[in-house]
C-alpha cells in the first residue's frame, strides 16, 4: 500500500495559510483539518455515525498510553486493530503517549532507555521506550503514528530543555529503526510523524525543526506548545516552526486549541489540529458558536427558544433550542453532554472547512480577522 500523500491545492497571498489534501489508505483528509480526540478509541459522548453525519469528521485520534492500558494490545490485535474494534473506517491518528507520561509527573522516571510510570488505573508500573511505543502503535493500527518524545513543560530552563530535546531526537532515531524492522500487521501503511520540541527557546526550536526535517518523514508535528505558555508565545513559536519545517509536508500543531487559536495557527501555516476543548468545555456548558462563546448554564438562556446555532449546517445545532439544552444541563441529563459535544465538534469542523474555502477563494486573511473578533465575543 502507498505511504501518506500530501497535495497543496492553494496558498494564501496574505498569510502562510494553505489548503491541501492528505491521502491515507483509509481515505482522504481535506486540510486545514480539526481532528476530534477519541482518547480510548471513543470521542466522548459521541458515536461514530454522529461523527460522520452531523460532525463531518474526517479523521479521529486515539491515544497509545490509554489504549495500551485498556483494552490492551491483545484485544486490539484480536479485533484486527482499532479501526475494526471501534467501527471507524476513516483515518485514525495515535498520539504516542508522551504527553500523558509528561502529565504523570509524580510517578514517572525518565531515562535514556525510556520512561517508567505508574498506571492511573491500578498503580502498576510500566516502561515506555521508543521501541515499545512503536510496537503498541503497530498493534493499534492507526494510519498516522507519533514518535515517542518528552514534552517539556513551560518554564523549563534552557539546559534541561536542550538535553530533553536531544534525547527526543535520539528516541526518534530509535522509533524509525523499530518501524523499519517491523510491518503493519493489518496490511496497510502506517506513517510516522516526528515531533518538534525545544520549548520557547528560538535556537532550540530551530535546531529541532532542522533535525526533524532531515528525517524526510511524510509529515511533521509541533509539540511542546499549549502547555501553559502565553498566547503570544504560542503564535511566535508556531510561526517559527512553520518557517523551518518542509513546505511540502503536512504540519500538525498538537493540542491546540480555541477556535481563534486554530484560525491563527492556520494563518501561520499549520494544516492539522486536535484538542479536547470542544468536548470537555461542551460537557461543562461552554458552547462555541458562529456569534461567540455561550455559557449555556446562564439564566439568560432559560426562555431562549431559538436554535443553539443556526449559523451553520448541523442538525443538532439547528434543531434543539438554547432553552432546552440549558434545561438538560441543569437537570444533569446525559443527553446534554451528547448535544453539547456534537455541537462544538461540528462547529470546529465547520470552522476549518470555512477556512479552507476562504483560502481557495483568496480572502482568507480578511475573513479570519473578522471571525476572530466574533469568536472571542462572550454572549
Brief digest:
Pfam families: TGT. With 379 residues, the chain is an alpha/beta fold. Helix content is 44%, strand content 17%.
Topology readout:
Layout (H helix, E strand, L loop, with lengths): L4 E7 L6 E7 L2 E5 L1 E3 L12 H8 L4 E4 H6 L3 H7 L2 H5 L5 E4 L2 H6 L5 E2 L4 E4 L6 E4 L1 H11 L3 E3 L11 H24 L9 E3 L1 E2 L5 H13 L5 E3 L8 H14 L6 E3 L5 H10 L3 E3 L2 H7 L2 E4 L2 E4 L19 H5 L2 H9 L3 H28 L2 H12 L4
Parallel strand pairs: 4-15, 5-6, 6-10, 10-11, 12-13, 13-14, 14-15
Antiparallel strand pairs: 1-2, 2-3, 7-8, 8-9, 16-17
Unreliable residue stretches: none
What is the β-strand count?
17
Number of helices: 15
Shape: globular
Major beta sheet, strand line-up: 4-15-14-13-12
Family: Belongs to the queuine tRNA-ribosyltransferase family.
EC number: 2.4.2.29
Pfam family, one: TGT
Subunit structure: Homodimer. Within each dimer, one monomer is responsible for RNA recognition and catalysis, while the other monomer binds to the replacement base PreQ1.
Provide a descriptive summary of the structure in words.
By secondary structure, the chain is an alpha/beta fold. 44% of the residues lie in helices and 17% in strands. It is built from 15 helices and 17 strands. It has helices at 48-55, 64-69, 73-79, 82-86, 98-103, 130-140, 158-181, 202-214, 231-244, 259-268, 277-283, 315-319, 322-330, 334-361, 364-375, and strands at residues 5-11, 18-24, 27-31, 33-35, 60-63, 92-95, 109-110, 115-118, 125-128, 144-146, 191-193, 195-196, 220-222, 251-253, 272-274, 286-289, 292-295. The chain has a five-stranded parallel beta sheet. Helix 14 (334-361) packs antiparallel against helix 15 (364-375). The radius of gyration is 20 Å and the shape is globular. The N and C termini lie far apart (49 Å). Its EC number is 2.4.2.29.
